[in-house]
Write a structure and sequence with these properties.
Chain B: This is Hydroxyacid dehydrogenase. Chain B: It is a multi-pass membrane protein. Chain B: It is found in: Membrane. The complex is a heterodimer of chains A (184) and B (302). Chain A is of the alpha/beta class and 184 residues long. Chain A is built from 7 helices and 5 strands. A 5-stranded parallel beta sheet of chain A has the order 2-1-3-4-5, sandwiched between helices. The longest helix of chain A has 17 residues. Chain A is globular. Chain B has one domain. Chain B is globular and about 55 Å long. The chains are: A alpha/beta (184), B mainly alpha (302). Chains A and B meet through helix 1 of A and helix 3 of B. The complex binds iron/sulfur cluster. The site of iron/sulfur cluster has 14 residues of chain A, from helix 2.
Chain lengths: 184, 302
């Protein structure tokens, strides 16, 4: 690995820019992101910057239960993020639908079936520390070139084959995921 | 041939790209750290602007559909080249370029190019947000350029020459003080800092006119902004701070003055909220206009 690509890899860990995507959240998860930028948690120490546009982002934070209407928006936003990119799913909703599971307006599948998720941050809502930890882990994955989109790309480059479909999530036990709701 | 080498040296090494880029990152880091400390936060680590730049270099560039590829990629390069060329003209101690007659005019022209590039970048991006940002930038530049240009032109009038070296070597007088204050008045808007951060209002229009940019072109825009910060602060130091006969002392003095000016505008930026475009416009045409009149009057009296 040349020195330049090494520096770029380190820079990816040191400067993760995030972009939020509310896919139908109750706003509980989103409001927990704000303290990250406040004096208490101060995400800027890790180089984290919140950007409004997906074009500047490295990491997309997706929160909320997935609705029929947000599916296309998620794909759209995800495609606009220039690679290398990582996806962090916030809260229990993207995994299981949480308390909204079974509603007719809700897509009863995990976020993993729409975009490749790299880090799951459980909780309803997750605590700011947990979100910070999730972003830091995603940034580490970006440095190692080990996010799922990066891996898929390198596979594609090696074999010139279509990207493997993300695995179907195990939705047989939605209750299990629901139990994971973090309580302070 | 040796002339050409001098220009290349000034453009590429000192005070051009090679030295100005780290200096710009240092100044950006200083501003961000100061903002963080004033807000009671820890702030970013020292190498943060460098890491941001390197990371953007390693990212993919997404070009929106229907946007001219050539102009989309050329704008950041033109912007960076223009600010670096402008910085190369500034007679920093040790600058190898000989002083040209009328280089103040060239400098003022080159300093407008990055703004023009930003406006064009907003318009070619075909994003509504980018176009709003471009419109705001273009309108605001009409306002803050009044005190900015008058401050420099009054100095030239005072010295009786459009040569940077003459401006630098002028004996200190009241005109320096008045024109310097007028320059400082225009500085926050030129740097797009807070009460006048109307063009890059991240809450209303998401990002500035670079909204559709990503990867290396965005990195070049960020670098050009960093160098612009160096250019503006050092221009202030060179024109309005009396030069010393020792180059090394002058260099340290210029750097210190630059950092002090940055601290001042950052303090203003942290303690104020964003104005509306009309308010900023009125402010610059009223108070900037009055300051300009006072500056011109000072050149006539002293
Ligand atoms: S996980 Fe909980 S807090 Fe987060 S969006 Fe779902 S219901 Fe709201």
């Amino acid at each position: 690995m040349s020195i330049l690509s090494r520096v770029v890899a380190i820079a990816r860990r040191k400067s993760p820019w995030i972009c939020r995507l509310n896919a139908g959240s109750c706003n509980g998860c989103d409001i927990e992101i704000t303290p990250l930028l406040s004096p208490r948690y101060d995400a800027e120490q890790l180089g984290i910057e919140l950007h409004g546009t997906p074009k500047h982002a490295d990491i997309v934070l997706i929160s909320g239960t997935l609705t029929h209407r947000s599916r296309k928006a998620i794909l759209d936003i995800y495609d606009q993020v220039p690679s290398p990119k990582a996806v962090v799913a916030l809260g229990s909703c993207p995994a299981s639908g949480n308390v909204f599971a079974g509603s007719p307006t809700v897509l009863n599948e995990s976020l993993d079936t729409i975009v490749p998720v790299d880090v799951w941050v459980p909780g309803c809502p997750p605590r700011p520390q947990a979100i910070l930890d999730g972003i830091a882990r995603a940034a580490k994955l970006l440095e190692e070139g080990a996010t799922r989109s990066q891996l898929a790309r390198s596979l594609q480059g090696q074999q010139a084959q279509p990207q493997p479909q993300p695995a179907q999530p195990d939705l047989t036990q939605p209750e299990l995921a629901r139990c994971e709701q973090g309580r302070p | 041939m040796s002339e050409l080498w001098k220009y290349l040296l000034a453009f590429g090494v000192w005070p051009g790209l090679l030295c100005a880029a780290p200096l710009g990152w240092l100044e950006l880091w200083f501003m961000r750290k100061l903002v963080a400390r004033l807000q009671g936060r820890q702030g970013p680590p020292f190498f943060q602007p460098f890491f941001d730049f390197m990371k953007l270099l390693g990212k993919e560039t997404v070009i929106p559909r229907g946007v001219g590829r050539g102009i989309f990629l050329a704008l950041p390069i033109v912007s960076l080249a223009a600010v670096t060329a402008a910085l190369a003209i500034v007679p920093m101690p040790g600058n190898p370029i000989p002083s040209l007659p009328g280089d103040v005019v060239l400098l003022l022209y080159l300093m407008e190019v990055p703004i023009l590039c930003e406006v064009l970048a907003g318009y070619v991006s075909r994003s509504i947000y980018g176009q709003v940002a471009a419109m705001r930038e273009a309108l605001l530049s009409l306002a803050y350029n009044l005190p900015f240009l008058v401050a420099i032109i009054a100095m030239a009038q005072h010295v009786g020459s459009f040569q940077m070296q003459a401006l630098q070597g002028a004996p200190f007088s009241v005109v320096h003080v008045v024109a310097g204050l007028t320059f400082l008045l225009a500085l926050p808007a030129r740097m797009k800092l807070n009460p006048f951060s109307i063009a890059n209002a991240e809450h209303e229009i998401i990002a500035d006119s670079h909204i559709e940019y990503s990867g290396p072109p965005l990195a070049l825009f960020k670098l050009s902004h960093a160098i612009e910060v160096v250019l503006l602060t050092e221009l202030f130091a060179v024109v309005f701070v009396p030069a010393t006969p020792w180059p090394l002392v002058s260099a340290v003095l210029y750097l210190a003055v630059g950092i002090a000016v940055l601290g001042l505008v950052t303090l203003l930026a942290t303690s104020t909220a964003r104005l509306r475009l009309t308010q900023a416009f009125r402010f610059y045409w009223l108070w900037g206009g009055l300051a300009s009149v006072a500056t011109m009057a000072a050149t006539l009296v002293w």
